[in-house]
Design a protein that fits this description.
- There is one protein chain.
- The chain is of the alpha/beta class and 643 residues long.
- Among the domains are: 146 residues, Aconitase, domain 3, CATH 3.30.499.10; 176 residues, Aconitase, domain 4.
- The chain is built from 21 helices and 27 strands.
- The protein has a seven-stranded mixed beta barrel, surrounded by four helices. Strands 7-6-3-4-5-20 form a six-stranded mixed sheet. The chain has a five-stranded parallel sheet with strand order 17-16-15-18-19, covered by helices on one side.
- Helix 2 crosses helix 3.
- The longest helix is centred in the first third of the chain and has 17 residues.
- Bound molecules: alpha-methylisocitric acid and iron/sulfur cluster (SF4).
């Protein structure tokens, strides 16, 4: 039987386990990346492991998230990451160099290699044929130390692309269509592989837009073949030697297959507050808008920026609209400036921001009260923009530009024939903002600088013999990590200060939660389906741990988050019968007799509601390794015990 592209890469990197869907496999990781909002924790954990130098082929530490420096905290964290990278053998991408995923795609991604990153959009590099996955910071730290990365062997989903995109329809519309078909849970436990004749009509950055938002499908990752288009991209980046051809075998089999006809696609928008709440832009036409933001790791390539510049040339942004543009990298920014397109954007009234995540993570540019904001980003979760009642729509750069000019939601295909974009065949290469580490002989001379905002990481405890505590919070389906641990300008500076961060935990759902959890010494959280979807931030586990959360019971969990819970010793359990969710309410007293024993070796446990006498069967689906980790109170203790 033949192999899919992803299976071929997995086979080449398999350290342990058997390649049967759902079974745990261990992978050798070639490259890692971190960004600053998750990086401080990842490097603190790397330091705690006592390993001198990274053991990967390449590890890069990026600064791109916390770039609004309203106090000393972010700058201190940047300095910490810079010095730690220099000492331990990592490349350091300085602030101003761009968004990690865009820069990694341009300068470091390699078809056929494995990459994990402490950011859920690491699959962006799948656009070049890399097996690239988002992971918690601790998993990235382990991989930097040469350790294995464990995942459940994914199922394979194939999306066949046929035809060719028409005027003013973009790669964003392709992934919005896939989200419309599969939904935010549709990719859970799977790798989405793109194939078919339509693939060769898409450039590498367009492919990367599509794999980037595979994160919103809940997929382990997404991947494209590596072909002549890939070679041309690598050549334009002056690194054709990194090219290898990659395709699936003709007799490869998939668990599910879908077809998207690129020629038939229309401009789409994901409506508030979920990336799979997709409608045709034509249905929304005429709706008054207040803000447009163009950029983010999804849509900030040279191709995206040139398209927008060509559309805005000679026009003026509508007086009721504020338009922000963040190019994805220094490379894109420089090329835009040199070809004059930047001037077209500035002239049209766009507010040009630095090449960083910016508004996507709520770092400025929050919309007005109840404002309608059109964003080329990948997430429109409630309150993520920094304005609690904002209505955020996810759209293509084409829809964003047309709407910014009109002041109302506008289907860009009504603009007629799109201007022809001339993409450079050679990109502007200058890696002067990528700092190299010192050699092994000089590492003792580098002092790692730590600011006062860096506080110790909470460490988990072994599970109690019997669990008896309160149901401290009950939440619904599709709870995101932005609900659990919000981001934005006020919160992000405390990513390395868990005690301070805890004041914001779950406040999007329940303002009283942090105080209540502290007063009661924690308890158990009850969630619905897909609990913990979204980001890779391990703070969504670390902070609940600090607040005394012992276990989370849910209908189902998102992949990265469940791994993070286990890494920090919080026991994730699923309801065998989802209807039992109704029999448990906030404030109920809960009990699991023989809790520690169940974590050690049972696949089931009984949750008793001592307040109303009801019970529920819980599933404990752990591997041996995960059980040992939970019994040790998390990965750090487990690793120490193994030494
Ligand atoms: C996001 O887009 O939600 C983030 C911010 O990039 C996160 C990482 C983080 O929370 O720092 C992600 O996607 O993993
Ligand atoms: Fe940054 Fe937004 Fe991409 Fe996350 S999704 S890495 S915040 S640009």
């Amino acid at each position: 039987m033949g192999y899919t592209i992803a299976q071929k890469i997995i086979k080449n990197h398999l350290v342990c386990g058997e390649m049967t869907a759902g079974k745990e496999i261990g992978l050798k990781i070639d490259q890692t990346l971190t960004q600053d909002a998750t990086g401080t924790m990842a490097y603190l954990q790397f330091e705690a492991m006592g390993i001198d130098r990274v053991k990967t082929e390449l590890s890069v530490a990026y600064i791109d998230h916390n770039t609004l420096q309203a106090g000393f905290e972010n700058a201190d964290d940047h300095r910490y990451i810079q010095t730690v990278a220099k000492k331990h053998g990592l490349r350091f991408s300085r602030p101003g160099n761009g968004i990690c995923h865009q820069v990694h795609l341009e300068r470091f991604s390699r078809p056929g290699k494995t990459l994990i990153g402490s950011d859920s959009h690491t699959p962006t590099a799948g656009g070049i044929g890399m097996l690239a996955m988002g992971a918690g910071g601790l998993d990235v730290a382990v991989a930097m130390g040469g350790g294995t990365y464990y995942i459940a062997m994914p199922k394979m989903i194939k999306v066949n692309l046929v035809g060719k995109l028409s005027n003013y329809v973009g790669a964003k519309d392709v992934i919005l269509e896939v989200l419309r078909i599969l939904g935010v849970k549709g990719g859970v436990g799977a790798i989405v592989e793109y194939g078919g004749e339509g693939v060769k009509t898409l450039s590498v950055p367009q492919r990367a837009t599509i794999t980037n938002m595979g994160a919103e499908l809940g997929a382990t990752t997404s991947i494209f073949p590596s072909d002549e288009t890939t070679r041309a991209f690598l050549k334009a980046e002056d690194r054709e030697e990194d090219y290898i051809e990659l395709s699936s075998d003709p007799d490869a089999t998939y668990d599910a297959e879908y077809t998207v006809d690129l020629s038939a696609l229309k401009p789409l928008a994901a409506c508030p507050h979920s990336p799979d709440n997709v409608k045709n832009v034509s249905e929304l036409s005429g709706m008054k808008i207040n803000q447009v933001c163009i950029g983010s790791c999804t849509n900030s390539s040279m191709q995206d920026m040139l398209t927008v510049a060509a559309m805005l040339k000679g026009k003026t942004v509508h007086p009721d609209v504020s338009l922000s543009i963040s190019p994805g990298s220094k490379q894109v920014y420089t090329m835009l400036a040199e070809c004059g397109a930047l001037a077209d954007l500035i002239n049209a009234g766009a507010r040009i921001l630095e090449c960083a995540c910016g508004p996507c993570i709520g770092m400025g540019f929050s919309p007005q009260s109840a404002g309608v904001s059109l964003r080329t980003f990948n997430r429109n979760f409630l309150a993520r923009s920094g304005t609690a009642d904002a209505q955020v729509y996810l759209v293509s750069p084409e829809t964003a530009a047309a709407s910014a000019v009109a002041g109302v939601f506008t289907d860009p295909t009504t603009w007629g024939v799109a201007p022809k974009i001339e993409m450079p065949t050679q990109f502007k290469i200058n890696d002067n903002l990528i700092e190299m580490p010192v050699g092994v002989d000089e590492m003792d001379g580098v002092t790692v600088e730590r600011g006062p905002n860096i506080k110790p990481i909470p460490v988990g405890k072994a599970p109690a013999k019997d669990l008896e505590c309160e149901l401290i919070l009950k939440v619904g389906d599709d709870i995101t990590t932005d609900h659990i641990m919000p981001a934005g300008t006020k919160v992000l500076p405390y990513r390395s200060n868990v005690p301070k961060l805890s004041e914001f935990c779950f406040t999007v759902c329940d303002k009283e939660f942090p105080e209540r959890a502290k007063a009661k010494g924690g308890g158990v959280i009850l969630g619905g389906a897909n609990y913990g979807q979204g980001s890779s931030r391990e703070h969504a586990a670390l902070v609940p741990l600090y607040l005394g959360i012992k276990a989370v019971v849910a209908k189902s969990f998102a992949r990265i988050h469940v791994a993070n819970l286990i890494n920090f010793g919080i026991v994730p359990m699923t309801l065998e019968n989802p209807d039992d969710y109704e029999n448990f309410n906030e404030g109920d007293l809960l009990e699991i007799k023989g809790f520690a024993k169940a974590v050690a070796n049972a696949t089931e446990a009984t949750l008793v509601n001592k307040t109303n006498g009801k019970t529920a069967k819980l599933k404990l689906a752990f591997t041996e390794r995960q059980r040992e980790m939970l019994l040790a109170g998390g990965c750090l203790n487990y690793t120490k015990n193994q030494k």
